[in-house]
Amino acid sequence: MTADPAPARRVPAGAAVLREDVTEAIRAAVFAELAAVGYGRMSIEAIARRAGVGKAAVYRRWRSKLPLVLDLVPAVAAGGLPTPDTGTLLGDVRALLEVSERALRHPVAAQIIPDLLAEAARSPELGEALREGLREAQGGVAAAIVRQAVARGELVASSDVELALDLLAGPLYWRVSVLADRSFTPARREALATAIVAALSSAG
User: Does 4 map to a domain?
Assistant: First the structure.
């Protein structure tokens, strides 16, 4: 007589896999709380309440609000920016500026980004994560645009990616986020795109 097969192992209580839908609800609640009250006044209790979960669900994933926000920094930095590939350097720059302007003018981003930058001055850990997140996200897009332009023969292989990043990110952020310039029209954006392409081409 053969022995009965060994019973299937049960997952111990408390060892359940974290539900992704709960994690996403918490992340969404963090963005909403950051926009509503800012980092300084944001609390785990308020995040849990907005997400419709208990505080324990938040603490199972992050020990406090700092690592929680640090985990979300790449998403804030990236802003969902795509890498355009229109077939020309001017087209790529034009498309990136248009998408970036929409992202910067979004009500949530317009509130979250300045608040996190201000908080970064008081929190070295948050500041470093935010800088690295911004550099990785924005720098990756700038590098891709330069690579594409080099492959098409529009820029030389030695083109300065750091200069491209400065030109693609700096003027637009200054105009839209710092000055909150509502007169930044499509015509002005086109002029900026043309100037950026001219600067990158002459720098090569």
Answer: no
Mind giving me the DSSP string for 40-71? HH--HHHHHHHHTS-HHHHHTT-SSHHHHHHH
Round to whole Å and give the CA distance between 18 and 21: 9
pLDDT for position 129: 80
Q: By the 8 A CB rule, do 137 and 77 touch?
A: yes
Interatomic CA distance for residues 106 and 108, integer angstroms: 6
Of 134, 119, 136, 129, nearest in space to 67 by CA: 129
Six-digit token pair at 139? 């720098």
CA–chain centroid gap for 57, Å, is 24
How confident is residue 78, by pLDDT bands cut at 50, 70 and 90? low
For residue 94, is it within any domain?
yes
pLDDT tens digits, one per residue of 15-49: 457 899 999 999 999 989 998 998 989 999 999 99
* Mean pLDDT, range 168-182, rounded to an integer: 87
Q: Alpha-carbon distance 52 to 76, whole Å?
A: 22
Q: Who has greater pLDDT, 91 or 122?
A: 91
**Strand, helix or coil for residue 104:** helix
Q: How many domains does the chain have?
A: 2
Is 15 contained in some domain? no
- Within a domain: 93: yes
Cα–Cα separations (whole angstroms), residue 77 to 14, 39, 69, 137, 175 = 34, 16, 12, 6, 18
Taking residues 68-72, report their average pLDDT.
Answer: 84
Provide the residue range defining the domain that includes 160: 76-203
